[in-house]
Amino acid sequence: MIESELLTMAYPPLLVFAAAILVLLLPRVVGFTFGALSLAAVLAISLVVPEGSYLTGTFLGHFQVVPFFVDPFSRFVGIALGLLGVCTVIYAYSSGASRTFTAIALSYVASSIGAAFAGDWLVLVFMWEIMAITSTVVVWYYGGDAVRAGYRYALLHGTGGVLVMFAVAAHYVATGTFVYDLSAGLADGLPQLLAMLGMGVNVAFIGLHYWLPDTYPRPSFVASAFLAAYTTKTSAFILYRAFPDDGHLFLAYMGGLMSVYGATFALLQHDMRALLSYHIQAQLGYIVAGIGIGTSIATAGAIGHLFNNILFKSLLFMAVGVVIYRTGENDLYELGGLWREMPLTAIAFGLGAFSITAIPGFNGYVSKGMLFDAADPHYFGAPEYEALYWLLYIGAIGTLLSFIKLGYYVFFHGESDIEVPDAKPGQVIAMFGLGGACLLFGVWWQGFADLMPVIEESTHTFMANGAEKHLHPYSPSHRQTAATLTAISLVAFVIVRKPLSKLEFTDPGSIIYPIGYYLGRWSMLATTNLYAAVDRLAVAFVKRWYWIGNNPVLAVDAAARRLPMVDVAERQPADGGRPSTIHLRAGIGTTILLLTLALTIVIWLLV
C-alpha cells in the first residue's frame, strides 16, 4: 500500500524533466543512463499505478486541476511513450547526440507525457504549449535549413495552440469546469469547432499537414526519431479526449482521406524521411477515422493503432536514420543493395515495414484490422461508413506500395557501390527493442488486447450493435483481406515501379503552406508594429509628464505662452537644462526573462 502511494506521487513528466537537467550536468554516459531510467520509470508507473486522479489541486484558488490522471487510456499511451523513450535515448547516445540536444529532447518528451496524463484541460493547454516550444527547439538545434523550417513549424503550431486555448476557455464558459468529462469530451458547439481546428494542426488534417514533410526531414536523424511519435501521437490521443463519443462523421471521413492522401504523396517522394513523414499523416488517418466512428471496436482500434504507431513509426525513422548516418544520402533512388552491407538495419527496417503495412504476425495487423471491421458494414460498421471502409482499404494499398518501394530501392535494388558499416550496438538495441515489441504484440495479440482499453481483459470481448462480440484478428476472413491487399500491392508495384520513379507532383500544401506562413508573418508584423507605435506614444506620454513633474513652473509657462495676449518671463529649468530621461537597467530580453521567471514562480505558488 505504501509503495502504491509513493508511486502515485511520482509525477512522470517531472521525472523525465529532472533527468533532462541531469543529462546537462553529469558525464555523458551517466546522464544518458538517468534519461533512459526516467523513461523506464514512466513505463513502470504506467503499468502498476492504480486508476484514479492524483496530485489534484486548485489554480488561483478556484480552478480545479488534475495534473496526473490514470485510466485505461492514459495508462496504455504511457506504456508506449515510456518504452519508446527508453529506446530513443539509447539510440541518441549511440548516434553521438550531444548532451544539450538530448536534454532538450527529454524536455520535449516530458511535456508530451504530461499532456497524455493530464486530467483537465488547463494542465493540457500548459503541456501542449511546452510541447510546441520544446519540439521547435529540437528542430532548430540542427541549424541550417532546419531553422527556417522550425520558424514555420512554430508559427503553425502556435496558431493551433491558440485555437486549443480558446476552445478550452469556451468549454469552461459552457460547463464551469476544466476537469475532463470522459464521456462527453469538450462542450458541443464553439469549443469542439475550435478544438477540431487547433488539434487538426498537430494531427495533420489535410490542408494543415504540410509542416510534416516540410519539417521532419530537415533536422538531424536523431531528432527525427524523437519527433516521429511524440507530437502527433499525443495530439491524436488528446483528440480522442475531446471527442470520446461516437458519430463524428466529419472526423471519420477526414481520417479516411488522410490515409489516402498521405500514402499517395509518400509514393511520390525521393527523400526517405519525407516519405515517412507523409506516412505519419496516413497512419494518423486511421486513428482519426476510428475516433470519428467512436464505437467500442473503433475506439479500441484507434488507440491500439496509436500505440502501435508510436513503436513502428519511430523504428522506421531509426532504421532510415542509420542509413543516412552511414551513407550521408537522403535520396532513396541514390541507394541500393544495402542489405549486404547493413543486414541488421535491413532486418530492423523489415520489422517496422511489416508492422506498418499490417502483415499478419505484426502489431499493425491487429489494430488496423480492428479499424477495418469498425468501418465495414459487413462487420460492425454502419452503412454511412461504407465509403470510409474503401478509403481505408485504398490507403492500405498505398502504404504497402510505399514500403515495398522504400525497401526495394534502399536495400535490394542492384548492388551497393559503397562499403559502409552496419548500425552501432546501441542503435541495434534500440531498433530491435521496438521491432521485438512490434512482433511480440502481433504474435501474442492476446497480451496486446489485455492492455488495450475497451476490450475486456482475458475474454477479449467488446460491445458491438448491442451485443457482446469476441476479438478474432486471425480469422480466415481477416487473413484473406491481408493476403488480397498484399497481392494487389505487389502486382501494382511491378506495374508502376518505373513510371513512379519519374513522377514528380507538387503537394498542394506546399502552395497553401507558404501563403499561410506569409499571411501569419504579415499579421504578426502588423501587430508588432501597432504595438511599437502604441509603445512610442506611451513612452512619449510618460516622458512628457515626467518632465512636467520635474519642471512644473516651466510647464505652466509653456502652456501660458500658447495663450494670446500673455507675456511670460524666461526662466531656467530646475534640472539644469538636461533632458528628462528614465534609465532602464536591463535590456528587453533580460526584462522579459525575469518577468517570465517571476510569473512562473507566482503561478507555481498559486497552484
Structural class: mainly alpha
Number of helices: 23
How many extended strands? 6
Could you tell me the mean pLDDT?
89
Domain NADH:quinone oxidoreductase/Mrp antiporter transmembrane: 118-374
Transmembrane segments: 6-25, 32-53, 73-93, 100-119, 125-142, 154-173, 193-212, 221-243, 249-268, 280-300, 346-367, 387-408, 428-445, 586-606
Subcellular location: Cell membrane
Membrane topology: Multi-pass membrane protein
How do you describe this structure in short?
This is Monovalent cation/H+ antiporter subunit D. With 607 residues, the protein is mostly helical. It has 23 helices and six strands.
Give a verbal description of the structure.
The protein contains 23 helices and 6 strands. It has helices spanning 2-9, 12-25, 28-48, 72-94, 99-117, 121-140, 145-175, 190-202, 211-215, 221-227, 230-242, 249-267, 272-293, 296-327, 343-356, 363-375, 386-412, 425-443, 445-451, 476-502, 509-550, 552-561, 588-606, and strands at residues 52-54, 57-59, 63-65, 68-70, 461-464, 467-470. The strands form 3 sheets. The chain has a two-stranded antiparallel sheet with strand order 1-4. A hairpin with a 3-residue loop joins strand 2 and strand 3. The chain is mainly α and 607 residues long.
